[in-house]
Amino acid sequence: MGEGAKDINIFLIKIFGFYFFWLLADNWLHADFVLFHRIWEFIYHIFLKALHSSSTFVLAVLGYETVSGYNTIAIVGSYGLLIDNPCVGFGLTYGFASLIISYPGPWKKKFWFIPLGTLVILAVNVIRIVLLTIMITKKSITDLWMEQHDMFNNVIYFVIFLLWLWWVNFILPKKDSRTDLQNAA
To answer: 66 pairs with which residues across the strands?
Structure first.
C-alpha cells in the first residue's frame, strides 16, 4: 500500500471515528448520563442563542418588528418560527470541524480555520432563519417546511464542501516545487 492510500485510510478512520462519537453522544450519552446531557444541551443552547440573537438583529436591521421567546422568532402579525435543536447547526459545525481535524494540516491553521468556518455556517443559517421568518408572513407554514429543509441542507452541504476545498487548496501549505526537483535529482 502506497503512502497516499495510507493517508486516505487514516483520514477515513478519523472521519468515521468522529461520526461514531456523534452518534454515540447525540443518541446515547446525551440521554443516559446527566453530566454529559448538561454539557451537550449547553452547547446546543450556545448555538441556539447565537442563531436566535443574530437572526433577530438582522430582522431588526431590515426594519421588521419582531416578537421572540427563548427559541422562537415572529414578525409581528405572523405565526413565527420555532427553532429546535436540529435547526441550530451544531451537527453541521461538528461535521465541518471533524472534516478539517481529520484532514492533514498544521494545527495552528486549524485553530483559526474551524472558528471561521463555524461563523460561515452560522451566517448561512441566519440567512435561512431570516428568510423563513419573512416568508411565514407571506405563505402558509405547511408550504414552507419541506422545501426549506431540503433546500437548506443542499445549500449548507455545498458551503461546507466549498470550505473544505478552500482548506485543501488555499490554506494548507503548498510544497515548493524547487525542493521537489532538487530531491528528485
So the answer is: 75
Q: Cell 532538487 appears where? A: 182
Residue range 48-60: average pLDDT?
Answer: 97
Cα distance between residue 79 and residue 73, in whole Å: 9
- What order of strands is seen across the sheet that includes strand 66-68? 66-68, 72-75, 81-82
> What is the share, in percent, of the chain residues with pLDDT greater than 70?
86
SS3 172: coil
Task: Name the packing angle between helices 107-136 and 34-61 (round to 10°).
Answer: 60
Query: For 125-140, how does the pLDDT look when each residue is reduced to its tens digit (9 = 90+)?
Result: 999 999 888 888 876 5
Q: Write down the residue that cell numbers 451537550 correspond to.
A: 40
Identify which of 88, 83, 74 has the alpha carbon closest to the alpha carbon of residue 156: 88
DSSP label of 89: S
Distance from C-alpha of 144 to C-alpha of 136, rounded to nearest angstrom: 8
User: 132: closest CA among 119, 145, 122?
Assistant: 145
Dihedral of the alpha carbons of 14, 17, 18, 22, in degrees to the nearest 10: 170
Stated as kind and residue range, the H or E segment containing 82 is strand 81-82
Segment 150-171 shows an average pLDDT of 89
Q: Do residues 122 and 55 make contact, with C-beta atoms less than 8 angstroms apart? A: no
The candidate with the shortest Cα–Cα distance to 102, out of 2, 18, 4, is: 18
Query: What pLDDT score was predicted for residue 176?
Result: 45
